[in-house]
Amino acid sequence: MSLYPALRPRRLRRNPNLRRMIRESTLSVDNLIAPLFIRTGHDVRHPIASMPGQFQLSVDTATREVEELAEMGIPAVLLFGIPATKDAVGSDNYDVDGIVPSAIRAIKQAVPEMVVISDMCFCEYTDHGHCGLLNQPDSPHYDEHLPEGYLLNDATLTLLGQASVVHAEAGADIIAPSGMIDGMVATIRAALDDADLSHTAIMSYAAKFHSSFYGPFRDAAESPPSFGDRRQYQMDIANTREALKEVVLDEGEGADILMVKPALPYLDILQRMREYSNLPLAAYQVSGEYSMIKASAAHGWLDERQVALESLMAIRRAGADMIITYFARDVVHWLS
Ligand code: PBG
User: Fold this and answer.
1) 245 is in which domain, residue-wise?
2) What are φ and ψ of residue 12, in 5° steps?
3) 208 is catalytic
4) Model-level pTM?
């Protein structure tokens, strides 16, 4: 049987150069953001059990790591802090000498060109592990109309503004609020502008879902909630329109970059956001996405390199400009 000539797309898959010429999406070092976990101490490189190949680093080892990442061509890092002490209000987050501000100063001094993104949330710093201030009878913010233990939105905003200024003054190029607190982008924008930090950008975790794929991260950042869960602030996994509503709000509030998190199970959200917004988009390939691949590879069930690269290409194809990935280092080796 003779087919009409146009029905033969395999013609353009015939050899590697033809395939290269028609490739629609790309993955390069330019797209990568490497997350780093910073803890107190000196010369610390503490393996994270649930995330093979990832470590908690002290400020000095993190700085050396960033020097290497810069040599590899990776443009940006995302910092998380594990403070020496946690309290009800997460004060280490807005302490000028807190763990992340200290790391930002050291990194920017050693590698000024590295784009430093600061994850802006309170869950790593509070003793209860929630992402802001809780409604508690002994607190000055107590609201009798709200249940005990409820995350107080506006009192948390004030602290987010304060902490963002501290991180930006330490040298952070981008503040990345990740708590899904209403008004977080507007509040942080106003606080930065008031402090003459209008050049500091905001990458908003616009659509952050209440995902079980964050499981391994809670080991890494030592930040599981001590009671309850995060459903009152993170988004229901079933919702798309609500994600688009968050996009509209965050754009209006002054976000410079929008993020979707997790990445691979939420490619539909990413694609819709790509159609909806002209802002640059980031996707966060989260701890669970990483550890699933690592665990299968350790059993010999999946090819780590191929599956990781396929996942990242899919995230790019769906519309992400940049990807936060624990594979950042590996990708540079794999692509070279
Ligand atoms: C803090 C935060 C979390 C992650 C990034 N920032 C945890 C959470 O929200 O529960 C998860 C990242 C990952 O799983 O790799 N708000």
Assistant:
1) 25-335
2) -95, 5
3) yes
4) 0.96
